Amino acid sequence: MTTAPETSGNWIDEHHNGVRYGLKGRVLVEEQSDFQRITVIDSQRYGKGLLLDGCWMTAEHQERHYHESLVHPALCTAAAIERVLVIGGGDGGTARECLRHPGVKHLDLVEIDGRVVDLSQEHLPSIGGGCWNDPRFHLRVADGIAWAAEAEDASYDVVLVDGSDPTGPAEGLFNRAFFSNCCRILKPGGVFATQSESPEAFRQVHIDMVKLIRELFGHADPLYGWVPMYPSGWWSWTFAAKDGPRYLTVQSERAAAVAEGCAIWSPRWQQGAFNTIPAFIERELNP
Ligand code: SPD
Asked: What pTM value is reported for the model?
């Protein structure tokens, strides 16, 4: 194994609850948009990366942990996948993974901050890949909370929430009103998924989210994986459906269409990731 030589540059850290999570690199862009502070960096270990309000969002050489974990468990298990809604996800990584599924015919990506899209396209083009020019892809620079509130009942097969942490512009992506609308706009047989924070660094937020989503949809379970630069590195995504825990059963034809191009996700990985629920969380969720 070779180790990259130490380069000059500064430590760029996310600070959370008395711990810092950092990469060595240099800042390429630092700006205040209408919604948040956006930082684009070039790091020694993971290539170019993005922070919002000082929190890690993505980086070129580890983004697949996050995007594959959010997308394929939903896209491989929903009854149909023709119409997909992505709320947040302005770097394009979630849309890119969705559009690898040939069954997706129409994808709305609703991102509140157009500067996240512009800067991702300019500095992190590999993350969105071909999504920006895919005829199935529709970029809506708009508030995802309002979009979900105004969308028609049963209008999407899959709803994915790729927001940031529950402070700042993403705060409203964690509450009852928002999740109720996500449930309402999901078609029968549809699957909902959201990033659901760290079971270690955001333990109570994580547990409260899973409980709330389960109450509203009827069925919801967290899946556990890793995003090395996020707080604690240990992360979760929560999947929900109204007609039973269909997100547990992978459709083999869908899986076959994407598995070879995945670095992390596979049907076996998915089964294991749902099963690695830590005992203390299982006790809280199933008292
Ligand atoms: N602490 C990070 C929470 C997850 C943020 N979403 C990442 C965006 C990647 N598309």
From this structure: 0.96
